[in-house]
Automatic annotation (TrEMBL):
<keyword id="KW-0378">Hydrolase</keyword>
<keyword id="KW-0968">Cytoplasmic vesicle</keyword>
<dbReference type="Pfam" id="PF00962">
    <property type="entry name" value="A_deaminase"/>
</dbReference>
<keyword id="KW-0458">Lysosome</keyword>
<keyword id="KW-1003">Cell membrane</keyword>
<comment type="similarity">
    <text>Belongs to the metallo-dependent hydrolases superfamily. Adenosine and AMP deaminases family.</text>
</comment>
<keyword id="KW-0479">Metal-binding</keyword>
<dbReference type="GO" id="GO:0060169">
    <property type="term" value="P:negative regulation of adenosine receptor signaling pathway"/>
</dbReference>
<feature type="domain" description="Adenosine deaminase">
    <location>
        <begin position="16"/>
        <end position="353"/>
    </location>
</feature>
<keyword id="KW-0862">Zinc</keyword>
<dbReference type="GO" id="GO:0009897">
    <property type="term" value="C:external side of plasma membrane"/>
</dbReference>
<keyword id="KW-0963">Cytoplasm</keyword>
<dbReference type="GO" id="GO:0009117">
    <property type="term" value="P:nucleotide metabolic process"/>
</dbReference>
<protein>
    <recommendedName>
        <fullName>Adenosine deaminase</fullName>
        <ecNumber>3.5.4.4</ecNumber>
    </recommendedName>
</protein>
<keyword id="KW-0965">Cell junction</keyword>
<dbReference type="GO" id="GO:0042110">
    <property type="term" value="P:T cell activation"/>
</dbReference>
<dbReference type="GO" id="GO:0070161">
    <property type="term" value="C:anchoring junction"/>
</dbReference>
């Protein structure tokens, strides 16, 4: 089902779109992986695009562990290589422009792309490895070049990793350093069973983010319980929730987040193939979000692995979840409102959407 986008999928919603939850390392072109592997003399388990697609993508629902194992097949080709990191950022912007996206926030772990060891800071640098700081600079350069060439606005979110709390203070410092140079927020990704205890690097990093006005999102309630969402909101002071599907299992929490206009970054195709939600799309939690007029976006998450595009997610929402054009307009306007852009740029983006949708600026959805 999550095949490359057909003409029908492309036409599902052919107006400007916003995307807020997509991972750079999960959105790399297979052709690029093969090309870089050849240039770097790295042997892969596949030699053609078709073989790589069969190797790296999911066709049927799997576990989150099986999904994460796909990254191990190609990340060693990308991580630590200067030219490649800038290249994948540039190509990412081109791809999103082709999908009708006019603003995107792409996220990644600077440490993983730098090929850092899992040892606490300072990191062991192997020959050819980068520092996380260099990675952020290179990604920024690639995104900026893509913006100029493809008439799209692209910003980035830097990820902390739940299994590496020793990296998190460094991540927030990078957010602070590059906050006026392309980086708009901080994220926490990884195994939701690893909580953010009082003395954890994650909690301290997010406290610093709050103090310095760094925008905050957290992966929570994807496969984890509603308690993980509550922790994200109450402990880490998240402004957005990555996924958040299992929030609806705690009615009191869900009601509170509706009242607070919390934004949920929903990824339909991803949620099926990672086993986060029922494989029956007609039972997906986003239907509840839609019916309750919740604040949410539609996103791809890791389109390389899911063999999808943003249009695939829109087509799925229309075909199986009862979405129509008005709902697509509503969720994109909410996405722009919930973006981490400065207010002036956010208002410009909203004006662009309202003009494209021919919706009055004072319209309430």
């Amino acid at each position: 089902m999550a095949e490359n986008c057909s003409d029908n999928q492309q036409a599902t919603f052919d107006k400007p779109k916003i995307e807020l939850h997509v991972h750079l390392d999960g959105a790399i072109r297979l052709e690029t992986i093969l090309d870089v592997a050849k240039k770097r003399g790295i042997k892969l388990q596949a030699e053609t695009v078709q073989e790589m697609r069969q190797l790296c993508t999911l066709d049927e629902p799997a576990t989150l562990t099986e999904f994460l194992s796909k990254f191990e097949l190609y990340m060693h080709v990308i991580a630590g290589d200067r030219d490649t990191i800038k290249r994948i950022a540039y190509e990412f912007v081109e791809t999103k422009s082709q999908e009708g996206v006019i603003y995107v926030e792409v996220r990644y772990s600077p440490h993983l792309l730098a090929n850092c060891s899992v040892d606490p800071i300072p990191w062991n640098q192997n020959e050819g490895d980068l520092t996380p700081d260099e990675v952020v600079r290179l990604v920024n350069e690639g995104l900026k070049d893509g913006e100029k060439d493809f008439n799209i606005k692209a910003r980035s979110i830097l990820c902390c990793m739940r299994h590496m709390p020793n990296w998190s203070m460094d991540v927030v410092e990078l957010c602070k350093k590059y906050r006026n140079d392309g980086v708009v927020g901080i994220d926490l990704a990884g195994d939701e069973s690893l909580n953010c205890k009082a003395d954890s690097g994650h909690k301290k990093a997010y406290e610093e983010a709050v103090k310095c006005g760094i925008h905050r999102t957290v992966h929570a309630g994807e496969v984890g319980a509603p308690s993980v969402v509550r922790e994200a909101v109450e402990v880490l002071k998240a402004e957005r929730i990555g996924h958040g599907y299992h929030t609806i299992e705690d009615e009191a929490l869900y009601k509170q987040l509706l009242e607070d206009n919390m934004h949920f970054e929903v990824c339909p195709i991803s949620s099926k193939l990672t086993g986060a939600c029922s494989p029956d799309f007609t039972e997906h939690p986003v239907i509840r979000f839609k019916d309750d007029k919740a604040n949410y976006s539609l996103n791809t998450d890791d389109p390389l692995i899911f063999k999808s595009t943003l249009n695939t997610d829109y087509w799925t929402a229309k075909t199986y979840m009862g979405f129509n054009e008005e709902e697509f307009k509503r969720l994109n306007i909410n996405s722009a409102n919930s973006s981490f852009l400065p207010e002036k740029e956010k208002n410009e983006l909203l004006n662009q959407l309202h003009m494209a949708y021919r919706v009055a600026l004072n319209t309430t959805f």
